[in-house]
Every structure is written in structure tokens, then in C-alpha cells.
């Protein structure tokens, strides 16, 4: 038994060692990727009730030199742990504002709203508001065209701080969407205190919407909540006409998902735009 225990321990150490070095390696790779500008923003269209494009969500991709595209699900968590998310987040903000500036020069794209994802660490930086203001001013963009997607977990953690930061950002004129809505512990009680503009129905409620009455009830409740708080509501992960039809019947009026557009590089997104907003 003693022997097995020692072997068990050695095995455990080895596994921990492997995990740690895999992590360290990924962390190194991420830094190198950042230095070599291997990150790219993809754009996923958002549409209104008539299927017309109203904007996009910017989703980051890591494009390796061999062309392979790595999903943020695989590196954002580590970037958050190591603090690299601050560099990445700044870069995303910068890219987004630059893109909005370009769109503002063209009558066909002038009104598009671009949403970016903001991580907790990034949002909690004492100078986050100043960074956003600086980017908006440097690119001369209309603040209302920039939307920040925040998650419930982020907002709930220290709500007084959250309200203060959001209020300062709101004063600049930017918009807020509550991402992954329904997966956290939202109550009307705290939601009504936040200067939000939009609730985004999490894709987990959309996936089985056509077959699951529970999901239908949840979506109906979310939309009722949004209405009573005078917030817009958008559904994400819309893949089928059946989902989109049900969402419409439940009162949703904005959609995002593969049914309309996958997240894609800028040129492909611009082609999609030309078709989706005739
Ligand atoms: P999210 O913000 O909830 O983004 C939605 C995810 O759903 C995206 O995954 C998107 O590609 C995917 N998606 C969109 N439409 C559909 C659909 O119809 N069906 C299905 N099954 N999936 C769909 P993605 O791009 O892999 O991003 C994963 C997560 O990584 C995001 O979840 C977000 O939390 C994070 N992320 C992405 N970009 C950034 C960024 O620039 N900064 C930060 N902090 N986080 C980011
Ligand atoms: Ca999002
Ligand atoms: Ca989401
Ligand atoms: Ca998510």
C-alpha cells in the first residue's frame, strides 16, 4: 500500500508538472502571438426583426502562422489569469474604434453598432473609463455606436463599484449589453440599478427552444423582464428558422447566430453586410 501510495504521489506530481508546463507553454505562446500580431477580430452580424443588419459583435481569434484559427474559449481564460487580457482588451477596443471610424465614413455603414466583449479584469482597471474615452476621442467615433458586453458575474461582483464605473462610461454615451443573460443570478432587484441598454439571451436557452417548453418559459420571462426594464433584447446562437420564429413569437426583435452570419474576417463580413442591408 505504501509503495502504491508513493507511486500514486509520483504520478500526481508528474501530472501536475505536465499541466503546469503546458500552461506555461501556452502562456508563452500567447505572449509571442501578441508580439507577432497573430490576433484578429472576426465580426458576427446582428439583425433586427426584418432581418436587416444593425451591427456586429467583434469576436477575437488567434490565427497561427499555419493559418489555424484558435477559439477564444481556449485562450481567454488563461489570458485572464495571467493579466495578458489587459493588453488584448486594449487591442480589441482600439481595433473596434478604428473599425467604427471607417464605417462612419460610409453612408451605408454609418449607423452600425459594434459590440465588444469586456472581461472582468479589464473592466475593473481604475482607468478603464479613461481608456475608453481616449479611444473614442482619438478615432472621433459616435460613442453610441460602441457597445460593451458584460457578464452577470462581472456586474454582480461588487455592485457599487460596477454602478459607479458603468455610470461614468454611460456619461460618455456608450451602450451596454448584458451578455449570457439567464445563466447567472440576475434579479430585477439589481438589474434595475444598472444603466444597461440591452439583455442578450444566452444561447443555451435558444438551442432547444423548439422542443423544450422550459426554455420557452425562460425566454418569455427574460423578454418580459427586459420590457419592464425598458431594455432591448437580442438572442444569440440562433441557428434555425424554427428558433427565430419562436423567438419572434415570444417577443424578441433582434437576432445573432449562424442562421444569419458566422463570425468572419472583415472582408467576408462586409460582403454579408452588403446583402443583409440592401
Ligand atoms: P460570447 O461572448 O458568449 O460569444 C458568443 C459565442 O457563440 C462565440 O464563440 C460565437 O462564435 C458563438 N456563436 C455565435 N453564433 C452561434 C450559433 O449560432 N451557434 C453556436 N453554437 N455558437 C454561436 P467564440 O467566438 O468562440 O467566443 C467564445 C467566448 O470568448 C465569447 O463568448 C466571449 O466570452 C469570449 N471572447 C471572444 N472574444 C473576446 C474578446 O475580444 N474579449 C474577451 N474578453 N472575451 C472574448
Ligand atoms: Ca458576447
Ligand atoms: Ca454570449
Ligand atoms: Ca458565453
Write the layout of secondary structure elements.
Blueprint lengths: L1 H34 L3 E10 L4 E11 L5 E2 L5 H7 L1 H21 L8 E5 L2 H4 L4 H12 L6 E6 H5 L2 H14 L2 E7 L6 H4 L6 E4 L1 H4 L6 H16 L3 E4 L5 H10 L3 E2 L10 H11 L2
Parallel strand pairs: 2-4, 4-5, 5-6, 6-7, 7-8
Antiparallel strand pairs: 1-2, 1-9, 2-3
Helix pairs in contact: 2-3, 3-5, 5-7
The structure holds ligand C2E and calcium ion (CA) (3 copies).
The site of ligand C2E has 21 residues, from strand 2, helix 3 and strand 6.
Briefly characterize the structure.
The radius of gyration is 21 Å and the shape is globular. Helices cover 51% and strands 18% of the residues.
Cα distance, first to last residue?
74 Å
Bound molecules: ligand C2E, calcium ion
Count of DSSP H/I helices: 12
How would you describe the shape?
Answer: globular
Structural class: alpha/beta
The pLDDT mean sits at 93
Q: Element order, helices and strands? A: HEEEHHEHHEHHEHEHHEHEH
Query: What helical percentage do the residues reach?
Result: 40-55%
Give me the count of strands.
9
Uncertain residue segments: none
Q: Radius of gyration, Cα only, in angstroms?
A: 21 Å
Largest sheet, in brief, is: 9 strands, mixed
Strand content: 15-25%
Domain EAL: 23-277
Protein name: EAL domain-containing protein
Organism: Rugamonas rivuli
